[in-house]
Amino acid sequence: MTDDSETKMDQPTKMTFDRLRRDFEGFVEGAVARGSQALDTIGVRAGEPVPAPVDIYEVDNNLHVVVDLPGVSSDAIVLQLDGNVLGLLATPAEDATKGKIHRKERSVAAISRKINLPVPVDGDSATADVSNGVLSITLPLAPTARSRSIPISTAAPAAEQGSTMEPMSAT
After folding, report:
1. Any transmembrane segments, and where (predicted)?
2. Rounded to an integer, what distance in angstroms lies between the CA atom of residue 11 and that of residue 21?
3. What is the pTM of this model?
């Protein structure tokens, strides 16, 4: 049970939350009813290029870039390597739906992405393929970026080599 003072203090707060809930529900209902136009409501323009999710990982002297591109065929993808920046532009096929549309949630917007690669790569040996809406790019690491062991030799002490080096003096 609550006392009267607690109830009176909670009343303005309850009214504020009720109003906020009604406003939010109205926003969601309006967005669903408007379909792709709802993107404009939250600041994303329909038809503008959108970023695609990307995973980047390194295995066996290769950098692998994996990009989700649902509904995009290989001939609708352009890849460009400029220094250490991988550019991607993909254009999904136009929706061929005929008749009256009752709901439209899937986007056919172009996908655009510039990806800063974390290590230098050999672009001349790069390969890419697309399967089931997933683009896989393999970029061999540039020789300068590859991990390698550095052999350590044991040098004879300077006295044994007949060194003529004199100690440096502080001037």
Report:
1. none
2. 15
3. 0.57
CATH number attached to the domain at 54-94+107-145:
2.60.40.790
d(CA 57, CA 138): 10
Backbone φ and ψ of 83, nearest 5° = 65, -120
Q: Is-contact 105 95, C-beta < 8 A?
A: no
Q: CA-to-CA distance for 70 and 64, rounded, in angstroms?
A: 19
Q: How many C-beta neighbours within 10 Å does residue 72 have?
A: 21
Per-residue pLDDT of the chain (171 residues; tens, 9 = 90+): 455 555 555 777 777 878 888 888 877 777 666 665 555 545 455 555 667 889 999 999 999 999 998 888 899 999 999 988 999 998 887 776 778 878 777 666 788 889 999 999 999 999 999 999 899 999 999 988 777 787 888 887 765 555 555 655 555
